[in-house]
Each structure stands twice: as structure tokens, then as C-alpha cells.
Design goal:
- By secondary structure, this protein is mainly alpha-helical.
- The protein is built from 3 helices and no strands.
- The protein has helices spanning 3-14, 36-50, 63-76.
- The longest helix has 15 residues, at 36-50.
- It is globular and about 35 Å long.
- The mean pLDDT is 92.
Amino acid sequence: MSATYEQIVGILAKELGQSREEMGPDTTFEELELDSLSLLELGVIVQERTGVTLEGVTAGSTLARTAALLDDALASAPAESGR
């Protein structure tokens, strides 16, 4: 998987206490039993680390889809952001 996917899995494991063994590309946040507050926390952490806002993520989003959304956001971020 992509580095972005690995970054999301790492955040979920280290910061939100999720088990890496329970995560796969097709795993949804709902399957991980993350509530809206946890998704908000994930978004804040992603923004702090990447400088972009993660949009369009819901409880039904898969980890692979979330990584793709973040990749898209990073690709469209202004170059002068330094990231």
C-alpha cells in the first residue's frame, strides 16, 4: 500500500489505540468502532502532520479510500506550503 495508507494506519494504531492486525485497506472506520469524535481527532492529527484538511471521510469510509482522499488533497495543495 501507499505511504499515505501506512501513515493513516500508523495514526490509528499509535494515536487512537487501534490494532494493526484488525486493519486492512477495505476496513471501515465503523468496523473499527470509531465514533465521530475519533474521526474528528484523526482529521486534526492528519492536518497537523500534512497541512491539509481531510474531507469526505465518514464512518463508512475504508482506509484505502481515506488514503486516496488524502493523496488527492496533498496533490492539490499549494506548492508553497512546504509539504
